[in-house]
Design a protein that fits this description.
Structural class of chain A: alpha+beta
Radius of gyration of chain B: 18 Å
CATH topology of chain B: Methylamine Dehydrogenase, Chain H
Helix content of chain B: under 10%
Radius of gyration of chain A: 29 Å
Shape of chain B: globular
CATH architecture of chain B: 7 Propeller
Strand order of the largest sheet of chain B: 2-3-4-5
Order of helices and strands of chain B: HEEEEEEEEEEEEEEEEEEEEE
Number of strands of chain A: 11
Strand content of chain B: over 45%
Number of domains of chain A: 2
Distance between the termini of chain B: 49 Å
Oligomer: heterodimer
Chain lengths: 193, 248
């Protein structure tokens, strides 16, 4: 009797595993059938040609940080930073708006710090740090008299600026674009045409 | 006079006992960034996050920017934001919130990764609570499986943070907290919440904007908001939130 039960259990187990194998095989076949559907379905990547980089010569980049003692229009605002009674606002890829915020009810745009390839900023030990494309730059600012002096630069400390799609297309990689150029921003090709 | 001095010394002591520090360090030599910041300065160091790396630079000598460490994150993870307290760094990434300690400020030390569903998320910290917004972004493939919500995380144990609240949102971006006021850029609105009890947040007001809000800085009763058209500022006290200026 004990032998019989053992045999039945073994048979059932076998049957179960056999069925499982069948199910897996069937699923695999179905999956294979689905492969071409994945290929032709609406799974699309953003158009690679959509964005083209703005390039700048390295020699030009290294002397590109300049203070303009004039208010500039806000077009593509980004990050904000508050330092003492000043407000800094990123103008994407272009630089920083310098806003006198002593009276928040009446902020005044006093000037613009031109920093090609700028996206971020922070102040440490009284020095303003910004990303000048792939370079990290320290700027001594006297914003009250609207003067800026570059005091430190760490070249290629940061990764390249990705296109708004989130990467640098192959045709614009370092090896495939003019030598000694840096990406300082991206423009929408369809918009410029 | 002596009594006043004693009182001042006592309040100083009470504040310095808070191990997690205030919201964000602010003094004569450093400022305050928004929650979407990628750069932050703590003492003599500048911390930079850029998708795959957390980099540390020594800035004690203003004429030099010297890298002291470069920590790489998981290949599938994109680090987007950084928020400092006096002793900790909070990084918002597509996989979750990283906590690093600054015992050695030149080389931040990994403490914990608080994971959640794949989303884009900035983080702010006040007292023992972190406030994180998770956002779906259909333009970026790495975030499009996420959810839209605000999470409150208890940091009593930084090596074992736990979720103590989840609130559905429209499409949240930057956020800021100042005392009992929590502000969130949500969809096309500025959302103000009462955080008197961090465990039970209450909506105060939802203000519709003429553009998409991006980030906020809430400090000393003034809220500065950057949005697609420029900057708006509000004053706030209790349940009153009033627009005071706009620059385009």
């Amino acid at each position: 009797m004990a032998f019989l039960t053992k045999w039945i259990v073994a048979f059932r187990m076998n049957q179960a595993s056999f069925q499982r194998v069948l199910v897996i095989r069937f699923a695999m076949k179905k999956l294979l059938l689905l492969v071409p559907i994945f290929f032709f379905s609406g799974f699309t990547y953003p158009d690679r040609q959509q964005f083209i980089p703005m390039l700048m010569d390295r020699s030009e980049l290294e002397v590109s940080v300049k203070l303009v003692a004039m208010a500039m229009p806000i077009r593509d605002p980004g990050r904000i930073y508050s330092y003492q009674h000043w407000l800094l606002l990123v103008e994407k890829y272009k630089g920083l708006h310098l806003i006198d915020n002593a009276d928040p009810a009446h902020p005044i745009r006093k000037g613009f710090l031109r920093v090609p390839g700028c996206m971020s900023m922070a102040v440490g030990n009284g020095i303003l740090y910004v990303d000048n494309a792939v370079d990290l730059v320290g700027i001594k600012m006297d914003i009250n008299t609207l003067q800026a002096t570059e005091v430190a630069r760490n070249t290629k400390a940061l990764p390249e600026i990705n296109s708004p799609d989130g990467y640098v297309p192959w045709e614009f990689s370092r090896a495939n674009r003019p030598a000694n150029t840096e990406i300082v921003g991206w423009t929408n090709q369809t918009a410029t045409l | 006079m002596k009594k006043i001095l004693l009182l001042l010394a006592l309040t100083g002591l009470i504040f310095s006992c808070d191990t997690l520090g205030g919201s964000s360090t602010d003094s004569a030599s450093t400022g305050t960034g928004g929650s979407m910041a990628r750069f932050t300065c703590v003492g003599n160091h500048l911390y930079v996050v850029d998708e795959t790396f957390l980099q540390t630079f020594d800035i004690s000598d203003s004429t030099k920017i010297t890298r002291t460490s470069r920590i790489q994150s998981n290949w599938s993870n994109r680090i987007e934001t950084i928020f400092p307290t006096d002793s900790l760094l909070f990084l918002g990434s597509t996989n979750g919130m990283y906590i690093y300690n600054l015992k050695n400020p030149a080389i931040p030390q990994f403490v914990y990764l608080y994971t959640h569903v794949l989303s884009c998320d900035p983080v702010v910290v006040q007292g023992k609570y972190a406030y994180v917004t998770l956002r779906t972004d259909h333009d970026t493939w790495s975030c499009n499986r996420g959810v839209d919500q605000l999470e409150v995380i208890d940091l009593t144990k930084t090596n074992a943070p736990k979720n103590v609240g989840t609130y559905p949102m429209v499409n949240p971006r930057g956020l800021g907290i100042d005392g009992t006021h929590l502000f969130i850029c949500d969809g096309m609105d500025l959302l103000a919440m009462d955080a008197t009890d961090p465990l039970v947040l209450k909506e105060i007001k939802r203000i519709e904007l003429d553009g998409t809000p991006y980030d906020v800085i809430a400090k000393n009763g003034i809220l500065t908001l950057s949005y697609s058209s420029g900057i708006k500022q509000y004053s706030y006290a209790n349940d009153t939130i009033q627009e005071i200026s706009t620059i385009y």
